[in-house]
Amino acid sequence: MFVNMVNANCRGKLPLNVVLLAVLGSCLVPGCGPGSPVPSTPPTRMGVQKPEGAPDVQEYTAWRPFFMTDVGDVSGSDMIGTGFAFQLSEESKPVFVTALHLFGTGGGLEADIRPTELHDSIESTFLSDVFGATDGVKQIGAPYEPCDQAAEQKVTETDVVAFDLVGRFKPAMLELSEQSVQPGQRLWMVTAVFAGASPSQKCHALKVTDVEDGIIRYRFDNERLSLKATDGAPLLFDSGEVAGMHQGGSTDEKGVFGHGITSDVLRQAIESMCLEQEADRQE
């Protein structure tokens, strides 16, 4: 069952060392685990890199999720993904989204958590800014679950998980685009990478090779780009609107390739979740 690990009076921002000692009991920064030395902070805020033609990306747009579950935990030494926040409309609740497969054996847990088990299995979820704009971590609310069996299948197929945003934590909100993604189009994956580019570079160019049934396939311009902890990152048009969500990739003799879902599929996945029902359960 979801547990609020942070008092409401201090949920907005917690120093990293407080969370380490009082909440997770393990390190939330790369390369740090139990018994290992605390690494020095990388100079991610120096000389922010913006490729030509890339959209302007606000601070607090992309986040690393860490979580505690009844089948294992993911801490800072196990950075596995990225996520972002948006609203379906001005009237709807803001949500934080990432890839569902992170909450399973693919993310280092002992078992896969089914969409209908999310609320009871995930005890707490925290976020840290991927670009180091803040040295604190933010606790977010409970995960949303599908409303019925058909919705569960939709959520599973689309590989999306969404969380309630609570308290004073206000991440930058991206806007879902209604524009269709086309083969040959340039998009941008937004996150910090571990190798192949500057850690301060927010946008990484890619070219769409195929779009079918809401699945986007693409190749990155940078043939040396590391995709570690990029699953769940937003894919943006040049305009800065969300074209979709990156969900995985690998390398071959031609370079680095990836796949994800379109913003339309992402919207449908969120619409299949019981947002209002979850709000009533938390009251």
UniProtKB/TrEMBL annotation:
Residues 1-31 form the signal peptide. InterPro entries: Peptidase_S1_PA (IPR009003). Keywords: Signal. This is Signal peptide protein.
